[in-house]
Amino acid sequence: MEITVETGEKDAAAAIRLDAENLVRRALEAAAAGVRNALFEYFLARQREPRRDGFTPAGFWYSNNGASVAERVRAPDLADGSARIAIDSAPLAHKLKGGEVTPKGGRKYLAFPATDAASRFPGLPRDNPALRPKPFGHAPSPLGGDRPALLDASGKPLYWLIRKALHRSDPRALPDTPTLAASALRAISNLDKTSHSS
Fold first, then answer.
1. Which of 64, 76, 141, 167 is the 20 to 30 Å CA partner of 193?
2. What are phi and psi of 68, to 5 degrees?
3. pTM value?
4. Which of 64, 80, 76 is nearest to 37 (CA)?
5. Residue 195: phi, psi to the nearest 5?
6. Contact status, residue 85 vs residue 76, Cβ threshold 8 Å
7. Do the beta carbons of residue 69 and residue 57 sit within 8 Å?
8. What's the number of CA atoms in the CB half-sphere (13 Å) around residue 127?
């Protein structure tokens, strides 16, 4: 595809030719980069929100631990005049649709943090060095009664143990379409400004 602008002069040097396919590709690349940047900004903002349980945010949305949602945003894949940005994150997919979570691999319980320090521990609960040698026990629950728990050396719960959890879908798991569209248009507009200045 080619767009030709001619000045009316017969001199061939006066003709300006634009490679329309290249222009469309550059605009698509810019739009996709704008959307990807908007995703990073959105996940950073979500990371800064307080947790419902009051604990310090541990890096679900944005961190450098290798498992945050932001780190799973892939580079845009451009093909056939469109762009695709994959977010390879099972936890994000779960946030989007919600549902029941049950233990896997023959385990009986799910562990969830009972303390802020436990919520910030980057590994699996069983690998937390603060656990006592035989950590399984029971402890008084803030909800009343005793609950199964993984205990620290002093016998206090670091993690509560439950058989299953039910999560509601999070309608804010991804930015809305108008936000992403505005980011794409802004990126294209910036591309236009940089091409005029060069």
1. 76
2. -70, 160
3. 0.77
4. 76
5. -75, -30
6. yes
7. no
8. 5
Residue position matching structure tokens 């008084």: 140
Radius of gyration, CA atoms only, the chain: 26
Crossing angle of the two packed helices 20-47 and 177-197, in degrees rounded to 10: 130
| 146-182 tens-digit pLDDT | 999 999 999 999 999 999 999 899 999 999 999 999 9
